[in-house]
Amino acid sequence: MRVSQLTDFFDRLYPFALAEEWDNVGLTVGNPRAEVTGVLFALDVLPEVIEEARELGCNVIVTHHPLIFRAIKRVRSTEPQGELITALLKHDISAIALHTNLDSARGGLNDTLCEMLTLEKPRPLVDSGTERLFKLVTFVPQAALEKVRRAMWQAGAGTISDYVNCSFSVEGKGTFEGLAGKTNPVVGKAGVFEETGEARLEVILRREISGRVIEAMKQAHPYEEVAYDLYPLVNKEPHTGLARIGSLRKAETLDAFVKRVQEMGVFVTRVLGEADKKIRKVALCSGAGSDFVGEAIAAGADVYLTAELKHHHGSMARHAGMALVETEHYSLEKHHWPKLASLCETEFKGLKTKVSKRESILWRAP
Length: 366
Known about the structure:
Layout: H1 3-13, E1 26-29, E2 39-42, H2 47-56, E3 60-63, H3 80-90, E4 94-97, H4 100-104, H5 109-116, E5 120-127, E6 133-140, H6 145-154, E7 168-176, E8 194-206, H7 210-220, E9 228-232, E10 241-253, H8 254-263, E11 268-272, E12 278-288, H9 293-298, E13 303-307, H10 311-320, E14 323-327, H11 329-333, H12 337-347, E15 353-355
Parallel strand pairs: 2-3, 2-15, 3-4, 12-13, 13-14
Antiparallel strand pairs: 1-4, 5-10, 6-8, 6-9, 7-8, 10-12, 11-14
């Protein structure tokens, strides 16, 4: 298996197009054509993580935080970032980042946290995934409709929320005239005006797979020149977005909620709210989600769980009567890696995967 195949698998699970504009996800360092010897999961690319990967025989490191966030003008091995990039290249180790796409995608990190907290009916707190959907329309003879439609489905088109193999078709009339000596039409003859029955076929697809779907459509289509339209949509992709909000099956006190969070192995740094405050509706955001305090308040959350909250957000929450639970960053975000390692082993039989044991919580209580 090549690194590119692993990257494509991650893109199917947690589409890279879901990443925020400022983010940098996917393969950031390495050779996409290299054979994968093993995969190590960690929050960050650190010197000890690179050394661990070497010792374990893993030539791919998958992290949550990208090693390269923004464009860089130089790589110097005497500087922290340059030292890490140099070490990866020296030892032929590829680095793949799954960041805000993992946060936003259905089944990603935030959904894992919802599962651990047993939240019911979780949904995204902040919209994301807009303008990622296209509608592809083509015109095909009735006899070839089923073949073309299935080819588009098999290429990934036609999924709407929890429904697959979705399409729409309607009968109509198509007209054309192929230039004599230059065309070989399936219907009629070159140089003769033709009018024939056709079906207008429509499917929904994700933006990033449009090229693949169009090529599959063309391969299945009987015409030598395929007419089609591709429309960008402003529809939001279902079940995607940053942060989550859901409900506990049974209300519990804030202190009881905090204790459950700690029992998950999450290092709680601060709590805002009365110990006996009743908690039922829970909002959460992996990582530094302080910017979404307002959204949590607007959604009617009783408590908002995230890392690295700012002082004025505490004032907002107190005024609104919403509790806050602030955690350390690493211990809140580490929980998805065992699940993803298992998914990789299921997809790629015989693949060696490991979750870093060298990386640890960077902060501690004094």
